[in-house]
Amino acid sequence: MAKDVKKVVLAYSGGLDTSVILRWLQTTYGCEVVTFTADLGQGEELEPARRKAEMFGVKQIFVDDLRDTFVRDFVFPMFRANTLYEGQYLLGTSIARPLIAQRQIEIAEEVGADAVAHGATGKGNDQVRFELSYYALKPDVTVIAPWREWDLTSRTKLLAFAEEHQIPIAKDKRGEAPFSVDANLLHSSSEGKILEDPALPPDEIVFQRTISPESAPDVATEIAIDFVGGDPVAINGEALGPAALLAKLNELGRANGIGRLDLVENRFVGMKSRGIYETPGGTILLAAHRNMESITLDREAGHLKDSLMPRYAELIYNGFWFSPERRMLQALIDTSQNSVTGRVRLKLYKGNVIVTGRESPHSLYDTRVVTFEEDGGAYDQVDAQGFIKLNALRLRLGAAVGRKGGTP
Question: Binding of L-aspartate: at which residues (predicted)?
């Protein structure tokens, strides 16, 4: 347990857990608590968090709208790499944590706090993501992680503490919630309780951001997304800011049952966990961006990017957003996007994202070369003979050795 803490900045949602943490910090450390609540597009009213903090006597309360910052500086850079963790997960929770931590540290500097605190448990990835970010940004900061310190080891004890310290408890919080939810503008994540058995399908009540594909319209929705330098800038010709653009894609994806994922993943701390993710706008964006790259990126540049992506995804998932290796990879990825400009047309239909066309002023696709008709000498097919023989040389030598009894 940290000692001599005078002022701490708490990542505060206003929910039961962080409200208990707020009071616990005040009573255990006898310190001043500064609350920070981030609006990342989670779709909840945040003013109740401010009022609750005021009720606890908090004098410095920060409620910041970070939606555009979140999408512009975190989500879009990640999507330039077509990032998927373990081939499927679009990292909606992972990418939000470094921004929250960054703003916490900024506030700590502003108000002269000597510590920061979060509400992540000792079993999950978020504790790692928050704390790696804290230390990368402020190496000498004191970190308080109540779930690893206190003796409130059961929900009964948590509720008893809340009642003892007159912390309001919503009626639905007195019973066991059927699952937990984390949400932001990129996605919603549901896990725990009724979702812990991976053999059982999730009930429809779990889904927060999408209608079921079966309930989606029988007519496809057709859209066009414009890119400049690898980032989306417009939908159907309408220029939109980062947060507004992702929100619009979310609406389109929701209405067409797009972006559901039932995943068993490997947590950084060692265990496997099952999560239900909904990333409607991100699923559309990934398909569009990959197709924009398909005509604008050189083959070897694209393949190099794809080979590095799993490592890049793992860095974000594990909490190393502010690491030197992530920054190095980001520089390479961003350089690759200079020519990724143009328009992609898509159909959205019953859970599917169907690309119907792509065009770019920087397109490397040349109809003169690929045509099955006369190409006017753009490509000499005789050249392929030498190309094939050179590439076959090692195969022929290896096969010859094999026939002599050696190892091919």
Answer: 121, 125-126
